[in-house]
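Subject: Sanity check before I submit

Could someone independently write out the structure tokens for this chain? I want to compare against mine line by line before I put it in a report. The sequence has 185 residues.
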Amino acid sequence: MQHARIIIIGAGLSGLYAAHLLERLGVANVLVLEARDFIGGRIAGMPADGGSDRFDLGPAWFWPEQQSALHQLVDELGLQRFAQYDQGDMLYQRAAGEAPVRMRTYASAPPSMRLIGGMNALTDALHGTLRSTRIVTGQEVRRLRHAAEHVEVDSVDAAGAVTTWHAGHVLLALPPRLAAAGIAY
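---
Independent answer below. Compare away.
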């Protein structure tokens, strides 16, 4: 059996940010469990041409004027940004089998920003701040049980091996529909 003070389920933006905040507060023995073999959750991108660049598959831009907490985090992490392009045409593809369609782009108001390196730069930077937090990927959480003085978390790896973790607290940092459909309580 594995032990942790706090287990965070999900290594997307919410889970990594929660771990980041706990580390800043000096909370020790935090563990993040992620079902996939990589971090990033909905922000995860697809590698482009085998290089280090990635295509954003989820969110691609943000609005500093409306998302002040995110803007502050981007500043804190020292991430570089640029204004979303709003001149000329864009190509839009609705489905893999359809040809892209040329469309006029439009200016967003207030202006939207993108991160150099894509939104993955945000989750990568948060991951880089975690010195004592342990992240274990490839662990799909299947069950949470309340025991006398702790919570038992059962996870399964790709080979079907079950691991039981004990934690004082559990934070669910995954979409509610996934938590409801995939975890027994």
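---
OP: Matches mine. For the report I'm noting this point. The mean pLDDT is 91.
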